[in-house]
Fold 3-oxoacyl-ACP reductase.
Amino acid sequence: MNKFMKTALITGASHGIGKAAARQLAQAGYRLFLNCRTSVESLTAYAKELTETYHVECTPVACDISDHAQVAAMFQQIEDSHDAIDVLINNAGISHIGLLQDMSIDEWNRVINTNLTSVFSCCKYAIPHMVAQKQGKIINISSMWGVSGASCEVAYSASKGGVNLFTRALAKELAPSNIQVNAIACGVIDTRMNACFDDDERAELENEIPAGRFAAPEEVAEMILKLIEAPGYLTGQVITFDGGYL
């Protein structure tokens, strides 16, 4: 895909992987719509910084992507600006740590709606333009726990496992339209989500990772760009990006 004059939407772009991906794509020349739910002020400042630094259009869009109606409104806002999405990066996600028996149905629904239903919603509204153009890229940010499952993270693991199979199935559906759908199943990334570990826990976890460290968000962002610009025959893949952990 020719990156010039292409537009990308990144969900969860105010921090972590999404923020790093925004800089990576801005540097590569993509127009950007950057989504967040609550950090609107900081994301607006970041979008302005990217615009001034890389001379590309960066538009912040506030939306709770766990709410299908809000996603529909976000895509209408994009359409009203006379633009459409050529590259969709479904990055936004939340975790929940605890015993399943102690989890409420509201907590379960929040994880599933944020991590999995949001991917459905964003894809649903991005796909028509891609099909019309006979090209498009969808990158889903998943987790290694969606491959193997994690104790005390059942809802998170289930949501990411759903993302992985969603990716494989949708790739088959869209391949005839020259639209590629791939996922990155991340290992332990040095983001806000993993800031819950104290120094001892972090050191213990690093010792379990063959690479001996957490990955930086910028490394995932680099992988995202490589997938976007990969040959069109690469589709339906869930690439485990975990430093050899699994």
